[in-house]
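Throughout our pipeline, every protein is held as a single compact record rather than as scattered files. Such a record has a labelled line for the sequence and another for the backbone structure tokens. The remainder of this section carries one protein's record, kept here as part of the documentation:
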Amino acid sequence: MEFFTTIDWAVIAQIIMIDVLLGGDNAVVIALACRNLHPSQRRRGIMWGTVGAIILRIILVIFAVTLLKIPFLKFTGGILLLWIGYKLMVETADDGDHELEASDKLWTAVKTIIVADIAMSVDNVIAIAGAAGQVDAAHHQFGYIVFGLLVSIPLIVGGSQIVLYLIDRFPIIVTFGAGLLGWIAGGMIFTDPGLIQYLGNYIEAYSTVAGVVAALSVMSLGELTKRNKQKK
């Protein structure tokens, strides 16, 4: 009870704002992963995917500073994100998974959401940990992090449902969503501490170019794959 009676709402607001602003791409991933689910399962997929991602993000925050320093962690996450962006783009509702049970599709979508969130969350959790660090009592910092992330859940869920609504009406959004993941992946790869250690600090200056190239590559390769599948 002491936490709630002495709560610093300014810090909570910062954590929520960071999670919403930096987590906008998460709403896109959630929507892309759930778009092929039956309409009756979409809400469950969004909810479970978001809850699982938030729980893992809380765990990551505990090790935030250490994670940022691990060589090639961001590089690996970037490569993984490129693959996820490509897969989400080329997968369609009629890709031959008709033999799968609805529950299998649901949990496959949830796993995709969680894996993608882990890959994208390294920078996010550092910012959240920094906001919570404003609290003097160290034992309260974790409480602020958990509370702020839990409050942000309905905002992310709502954002995902809006993106899903738009995807149903404008399928081209799937291509741009995959491009967004490519953009994030390119930036992650070229700001990895391990890569910088071997190639030098100058490669960070090319992170924007890397993001553009990665985004265009994911969209182009995904579109080419989809067209080849349609011809067969």
Summary: The radius of gyration is 19 Å. The chain is about 80% helix and 0% strand. Residues 138-169 form the longest helix (32 residues).
